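Limitations
The structure tokens in this dataset are predictions for the assembled complex, not deposited experimental models. Users should treat interface geometry with appropriate caution, especially where small molecules or nucleic acid strands are included. An illustrative entry is reproduced here so readers can see what is and is not provided.
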Amino acid sequence: MPALITLKDVSFSYDDRPILDHVNLTINEHDFLGIVGPNGGGKSTLLKLILGLLTPSTGEISVFGKHPNQVRTRLGYVPQFATFDSAFPITVLDTVLQGRLGKTRSLLGYNKHDHAIAQRAMAETDVESLQKRAMTALSGGQRQRVLIARALACEPEILLLDEPTANIDPHHGESIYELLHRLHERITMILISHDVGFVSRSVTRVACLNRTLVCHATSPVDSDSINHLYSNPVSVIHHDTRLSLEDNL
Amino acid sequence: MPALITLKDVSFSYDDRPILDHVNLTINEHDFLGIVGPNGGGKSTLLKLILGLLTPSTGEISVFGKHPNQVRTRLGYVPQFATFDSAFPITVLDTVLQGRLGKTRSLLGYNKHDHAIAQRAMAETDVESLQKRAMTALSGGQRQRVLIARALACEPEILLLDEPTANIDPHHGESIYELLHRLHERITMILISHDVGFVSRSVTRVACLNRTLVCHATSPVDSDSINHLYSNPVSVIHHDTRLSLEDNL
Amino acid sequence: MSFFNALLEHTFLQHALFGGLLASLACGVIGSFVVVRRIGYMAGGIAHAILGGMGIAYFLGQQPMSGALISALIAAVIISRVSRVSKHGHHQEDTIISALWAVGMSIGIIFIAKTPGYNVDLMSYLFGNVLMISANDLLLIGLLDGGVLLFTLIYFKQLLALCYDPEFAGLRGIRIEWLNTLLLCMVAITVVILIQIVGLILVIAMLTLPAATARLHATTMLGMMILATALGMMITSGGLLISYNYDLPTGATTALSSGILYLVAALIPQRRHAVK
Amino acid sequence: MSFFNALLEHTFLQHALFGGLLASLACGVIGSFVVVRRIGYMAGGIAHAILGGMGIAYFLGQQPMSGALISALIAAVIISRVSRVSKHGHHQEDTIISALWAVGMSIGIIFIAKTPGYNVDLMSYLFGNVLMISANDLLLIGLLDGGVLLFTLIYFKQLLALCYDPEFAGLRGIRIEWLNTLLLCMVAITVVILIQIVGLILVIAMLTLPAATARLHATTMLGMMILATALGMMITSGGLLISYNYDLPTGATTALSSGILYLVAALIPQRRHAVK
Amino acid sequence: QAQTTTLNIAVSVAPQKYLVQKLAGEHAKVRVMIKPGQSPTTWDPSPREMARFATTDLLFCIGVPFENIWLPRLQNNFPNLKVHDPRQQIALRPLHEHCHHNETHRAQVEPVNSTLDPHIWLDPLLNIQMAENMLHALVKLDPTHQQEYQQRFEQLRLELTQLHLEIEALLQPYQQHYFMVFHPSWGYFARRYHLQQMAIELSGKEPKGAKLAQITQQAQKNGITAIFIQTQFSQKAATTIANQIGAQVISLDPLAEDLPLMLRTTAQKLSCALEAPCPLSSH
Ligand SMILES: Nc1ncnc2c1ncn2[C@@H]1O[C@H](COP(=O)(O)OP(=O)(O)OP(=O)(O)O)[C@@H](O)[C@H]1O
Ligand SMILES: Nc1ncnc2c1ncn2[C@@H]1O[C@H](COP(=O)(O)OP(=O)(O)OP(=O)(O)O)[C@@H](O)[C@H]1O
Ligand SMILES: [Mg+2]
Ligand SMILES: [Mg+2]
Ligand SMILES: [Zn+2]
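Predicted assembly:
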């Protein structure tokens, strides 16, 4: 099984403040990696590096064996915060359709196939009924679900999710978990979440990131070991060094 | 005990789409009301009405017996999403100090007292060490905690929190819960959260909002009844009518 | 003589009418981008920035208008390039446009000062007049319309994504720098061509105000473009009619109407309960 | 003759130097607000919008400059008022300023058209020149500086909150509409006063570019204001020196320097890893 | 000692330079304040140019609108700068005359603030008067060369008279003919040679729909065959109107420094244009 994503000795700093420190990570096909860690631990930064939105100070990142910028369209991404102008005149449907960019023909409008996929993505996150609404007229959780639908519409081979269920109500949260579970059969996923319960239920591997990354390596984590890991979730996630985590294991 | 906030028969609609429907609510001193409900249920809208940011279509809202606009400075507010320009050149400290506006002298700069309170607020949400940083240079959860600190610096008599712990890691989430618990002794609070576990542990009353409001009235909810309420959390929160909720009770 | 008789009789009125209608199309489409991208500044800025190119062209003994076009394109490229590398990835085009305004106009003035035997009022090139549109001009606006429509039709989905969420658009493999440059060049060309045909004020008015008015009511870009074009057509023909009947300057009357229309539309309380 | 000898000899050079330094202060402070509020457009817009007031004043036989000042203030009030009621509470000032530009200039043109007699070139009232600053002008800029500093000092914390997060500022009991209007009026007054003393290009350049350059390096508003003022002082005195040494137009040279400084600073890769 | 001093003279517009230079010869260095085509927006002197006003002995103004704004400021900075208005004894005409499109004009009171036409240098004979005024000013400034200045003036008067006669002869056949201009700069010229100037731009204001219609009709009625524009301005608008009425566009430069050449060329171009067959029937 070839590695889809490899990070070799990746470091990154903003303004000389080190954020990531010699991070090594390999993600194989069908992995479902959960990343947990304290606020400011560098989780979002790691995703942005994998997407090629940021460039590592040292080390190397390859995705599908290539430079991240060359394979962008094969990845789907749900950002932690929407980066768009919230007053922009655009409907939910048009937003979700934008996930098709890079997959569909490059000239002229979207075709039927794109629309079908967008509809399916919206159905999966239960925003179908909102599709004609303006993005401005959504509640926080509705907007978040539209962003997930947009990422699904990309038909990505790898899906990167940065706290996708923040602001989402438990019912929809639950159905998003189920959705990710289903998707996991065909898509490789990286999920950042503070929702310990969810992470423990769904992912196959967990990485703890707080400047340095501790990955609970290649053997899929079974439910027991996850439960063990999170028996005292707060202290685990708040470990400041490698050691404290390993103590817990 | 006088009612601090009363909503009488309040309705509200955006563009003729009804969002709130004849909502009645009374909040007394030392109440800690948790509001749960599905995405788009109108929770954020309700807070905005209480703050006077929106005006009800029908019905009346009074806060401290007055029109909301007249008592704004006695309320503290943590919005669901930051409304500011994220590239603005401002430090964390200056942001938190802005909570003092309306409490401090109106001319010239902030005084020592303001600084002391800001420091305390930052300590309470553990962002003291970030105080010299630019707001642009914060992670999602760090920013969220700064917003909570800003609301605390207001020294509000009523604190309105719209999903304050979204994006916050469990450790800090825990300490924010503890903080709110402590504050509850002196501050009346309304909290919107999808975090069922938290709501059940902390609040004295729970309201379910999905266009209509079902409030679990004046008797403080003990831990048992909350547990009962959330025994099957998804179905409870996803009740579409008054009835389904009452079925569950 | 009534306006309609006059219209039948005078070709200049016919040209003004058609010119206005044609210009409304280009302005409605390009203006919608201008408004959502918040670069309403662009028309005024480019208009003044091109003085630099005109000054240099004159110095070299070339046609000022070719200098204007080239410098407008250069300005567009610079705006796109600078906003790309700007610190937070946010577009703060207003500052870059100010910089180009100052730089362009300064270069123009310096070249004027240093050109021996200089005797052209470069500013006069900025003031076209809608009553003096020639048949050639009509053709030119028609071509502009064609170019704008073609460009928008072909790249509509990419342009929409670019304006809405550049980061996401980039992740979907769109070469956003390139497309952004193309869009700004389109704006620059529209501005330069229309300025010398209908004049600076009218370009500023037509490029931003119908689209801004449309935005108050449209929920999609496409709707906004169509509404903006329709409004533009109403305004230009209405402006012509009013100015004829009340003996007022046409350009100013039209610009004034569009400004008033926008301000009134913006001040009328929206149906929803206004955020205080 | 070296620049410094010339400076000792010619009062006009001394006036230019002092005028530039004084103007840098007002521009550094007000310009910082202009930049973070993204209303760099305001200088150009107001400059053209006040033609309306001047036209009316001229029609009524009044001093054009009083008309200019009044209309600038009216424009500021309108901008503040319209942006307040705008649908989403977002400030889209660029469009409102475009509207005022078009409306103001059109009114000017219409009134001039309706004023019997040959028009004075109203535009020429607008354009000061840094080499023609009188002692009175210096006093005026000094007063402006004083007003700006006082205003900023007194209301700094409110202004900061207003620019950063108007919704929150409003919730803290700040009368944001009122303060916003006051701020925009301050900008308008600065623009009108400085335009007739140092000229339009220089005002646009000085009001936005030093502050924008400062923003690339400052993390606080205060730091931005101080840096912007210092940069402005460097640029104006440097511009004067260069223009003297190379025999170039002073206003254009200064504006060009500030533009180039900004563009270079914006293009130099930031220390952090740039977001692509 | 007097022989070695040269006078530093500044003039408002380039044609004035011709007159002063002719009068003062090598005794004066003359510079033009406003280059042709400079507008208040683009007029931006260098410090050295400004410093020269400190050593300028005399400035001849002419009454162009530019001066209203800049002269007071200039004098403010250079309180010793002498400014001389060489327009004494010249009957100035208002820039805008109401007689051209008479049938629609209500009896209008001549407005108080109607601006006077500054283009006196476009009439050879008025130039003689202006030169004479300049002569007096020069003599007052530099009495030692009075003789020489006087002589040079006589020569200039001769030259200009000659020019006048030449133009008069050339334009004699076209008395009362109409010619069309964009900006009404040629009022004095027209008055001198009994021609009728029709301006598209009314009082420097943007033409208006109904007016423009009248003007084009009028132009056709008056048999206009050419529209004269100033080289300084963009030709676009004039070209469009010219196409409308089937006339040609001819560019003239009223601000050229070589005054006689410029006037002569103008007269020739005019006579050519007026010579062309009347296009009345063609439209
Ligand atoms: N500005 C707006 N214009 C029109 N409709 C709006 C606007 N804001 C919100 N809505 C609609 O109002 C309804 C209630 O929104 P609100 O933000 O109050 O929901 P909420 O309960 O806070 O949801 P969430 O849990 O997702 O934050 C939603 O259906 C939303 O689509
Ligand atoms: N644009 C930026 N400039 C400078 N520093 C930044 C920037 N963005 C983030 N940082 C800093 O980098 C560190 C890591 O940020 P990151 O967003 O990756 O954290 P995170 O793990 O996603 O946290 P959270 O759980 O709060 O979202 C933080 O300390 C943050 O302050
Ligand atoms: Mg994050
Ligand atoms: Mg909400
Ligand atoms: Zn201008």
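Some entries come with short summary sentences. For this one: DSSP finds nine helices and nine strands in chain B.
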